[in-house]
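pasting for the record
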Amino acid sequence: MRKLGQGVWNIVRFNWHFYVVAGAVVLLLCIVGIYGNAGLQPYAYGLSFLVAAPTIVSLLVSCYVYDTPKLYSLAWMSPQWLPNQGTVVNIHAGFDETSALLQHHFADAKLVVLDFYNPTEHTEVSIRRARAAYPAFPGTQQVRPQALPIPTASADLVVVMLAAHEIRQPTQRLAFFNEIRRILRPQGRVLVVEHLRDPANFLAYTIGFLHFYSRSIWQGVFRAAGLHLEEEKKITPFVSAFILR
């Protein structure tokens, strides 16, 4: 259901301004290295490498994460997480790559899709471009993180995939997970998938890893919301899945 190279291509086309600037800087430094003063050549080439290398590494890692079957095949999702004809609530932050996959993976389930994107809070141009490129999944509801329009104790599985970190305010993030606990059935599960602010993601994305949160921060939020960590899976060295009860 996903095209070859779709993940890394989406990253490039939704963040093309960054790659244009990086390419222009590398080109300018290479010109300085070729035609400039001989004393400047080592510095020009060194700086061009410091710009180009992290950019290339981040794209290679993104290709590994988003374009190999590990993440989006959903093979790592246990069928035991969902009873027959249960209810799956999929929550995202404006760019939905998972609802169609979840509908296919849990074919007998009822799927409810919620989108907490707010243009006044989520101002990244990449999200606006993604929303323009991909239509919303049919039936998607626009929501606020702290007020999910789902009945109490009605969801068997709540999925928040690569989206929870977009809730930047700690109080709103806690309110969001309190709402998830409210809508969850007593035997239900929550699946939170995130990059972490850890050494692996620093090596992959350098300062970009600051956009993510550490494992300890997530664990603190889960505990404060009354959710118990049943299991933590490493889908790849760069992406973690937290299964909560």
